[in-house]
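Exam prep: given the inputs below (a chain plus flavin-adenine dinucleotide), describe the expected output before reading on.
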Amino acid sequence: MVNGVECQPPHQVVIVGGGFGGLYAAKALGKVKNVSVTLIDKRNFHLFQPLLYQVATGTVSPADISSPLRSVLSESQNTRVLLGEVSDIDPDGQKVFMGEEVIAYDTLILATGAKHSYFGKDEWEKSAPGLKTVEDAIAMRRQIFSAFEAAEKETDPAKRQALLTFVIVGGGPTGVELAGAIAEIAYQTMRKDFRNIDTGETQVLLLEGLDRVLPPFAPQLSQEAEAALTKLGVTVRTNTLVTNIDNDIVTIKSGEETETIHAKTVLWAAGVKASPLGKIICERTPAECDRAGRVVVEADLSIPGYPNLFVIGDLAHYAHQTGKPLPGVAPVAMQEGQFVASLIKAKLNHKPLPQFKYRDYGSLAVIGQHAAVVDLGFAKLTGAVAWLFWLFVHIYFLIGFENKLVVMLQWLWNYFTRRRGARLITGMDVGVKNPVNQSVEYYQPVDNRTPLNV
Ligand SMILES: Cc1cc2nc3c(=O)[nH]c(=O)nc-3n(C[C@H](O)[C@H](O)[C@H](O)COP(=O)(O)OP(=O)(O)OC[C@H]3O[C@@H](n4cnc5c(N)ncnc54)[C@H](O)[C@@H]3O)c2cc1C
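Solution:
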């Protein structure tokens, strides 16, 4: 009691995951009275995943697209940030576990996202790394630029061609962006940089199982994207399924025909599955998981029977709006995070509860440094106008003023010079004989490295 007024302890909101969903929820709760927020992430930074492919292809550096969670939330006095990996949840006891450490909550928001999926062929991951984390991007960058370095030294023409062949599996936005960027590197950026190879002989293949690239976009934009990729030098193969990836050989099937491609670099951009916490929730509560491991949520994003447990972003399967699950994109996660924050506020203040409705402002994909496609529903943009639109949207949503400035300056510099300043090969021992062979080893601290194939 203070001055005769009963004091309520603050309502403890625990948010697991500082990606788009978790961070936007935390920001929206940042100044709410009588709420105490704990944001837990296994990383100490928020990662702007839509620009990861630019790290993988040497346009920007990892720090340019990452912001320390502590500094993003430093103005929110009611919020603490904890570094740690949540390993388990007790929904009845209202606790989350980080190994031995236990954190109690009144309301829990789970926003741990997704990672890439190989549709049951997990053994392909070794040969065809995907792109989800900063480490993935650095490993991919190492693999791409090491392939050119190894080709420069290779005297056997067949081996050289395999080194200069890049296969990207999956024609969604990430695959299209990677293919366009690699083609630009080979045919423009590095054209004058080598003495023994002509990087113009590089082959960039984009494989898509469906009948067009960018399947979620309007068919007209898929056609535009394919035409722009072809103009850049990418070979686009639609209706093409990968049936095996092994030992630098990709086996593909188009109709009844089977073919093999010799490629030292195979990059995976084909599928995602939800973070393992989804499975834990589905084991501990009546909630169901879909085939991708996402938790099927109620209309207010809570779990059946647990009105204080919310699942948002890539981890959630929300089908109440259209009958189909909302897509795994940043705006969905951001809007869901903001919605759950407003719901918590309304509940605590005994106000009418809001209803969640996702507003789709459109989809964008970039094809190269001067072309993109933008689907706003009511309008469709292509070419340089779309590219400028894409650029401003991404700058706007980058977290942190310094990031915005640095990335914008780098893009302008690259635009006018066609250079890529971050073409560093890192995360390997200096002097390694064939860095391409260690393509799937992840960047690790020096004293904890796996032995290399020297
Ligand atoms: C390469 C790539 C390109 C993309 N491009 C676009 C694009 O152009 N436009 C677009 O809209 N979307 C894009 N997306 C999708 C978009 O990034 C996701 O939809 C969005 O990040 C989902 O947000 P989220 O909060 O659900 O998860 P995430 O942003 O993935 O965040 C999850 C967070 O949880 C943390 N975490 C995970 N497990 C644990 C644990 N057990 N304990 C503690 N912390 C944990 C992670 O460290 C991470 O910080 C892209 C994704 C990728 C991978």
